[in-house]
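Closing statement on the FE2/S2 (inorganic) cluster sub-project.
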Amino acid sequence: MSETFDEATTLKRRTFVAASTAAAGLPLLTSDRLPTSTTTPAPADRLSTVRLTVNGEQRTAQVDNRTSLLDLLREHLDLPGTKKGCDQGACGACTVLVDDRRVNACLTLAVMHQGARVTTIEGLARGEQLHPLQQAFIDHDGLQCGYCTPGQVMSGVACIAEGHTGSREEIREWMSGNLCRCGAYTNIVSAIEQTAKEA
Ligand code: FES
Ligand code: FES
């Protein structure tokens, strides 16, 4: 059976985290990273105009070609709800949906998503009405410091849509790319389980 994109992504992330954890005492991050901001002006030939539909709105920004999708959202489009945890693809804090598939926004370049439909945590609620999974996180106390929560919620929305909610073990498996330093996992699983049952 062929491996799906999501399975491959999950496995790669898990392998990365396992390797990083095994290297006791070593920092998780390396210096080989995308620029975290575009405050240094880029030459004109390194700039691109990116057009996206973000949370249902047409958005346009001129960015350095090396700008990640995460930095485009946070720094150019004023959508700071998506969090930057590791900036290395290891924590899932930056998870957004691109054309309904979950993506680590720190690991992909903005220019690669010309014309895409992006959903961030800011796009889930309908006015004052929270998305059912946002409400379930509150009901089940699925957040402590809350830093990982936007990525957990976005990943959970996709996990439910993918149908990977047959058991608590299956939910854990398919949410394993999203790390929570506060250890709210049990309650996060409960929130996803409840929302999947009610969907
Ligand atoms: S910020 Fe950690 S995976 Fe993107
Ligand atoms: S609630 Fe603190 S990192 Fe998850």
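Residues 143-149, 180-182, 184 surround FE2/S2 (inorganic) cluster (ligand 2) (CB under 6 Å). With this model delivered, the sub-project is considered complete and its resources will be redirected to Aim 3.
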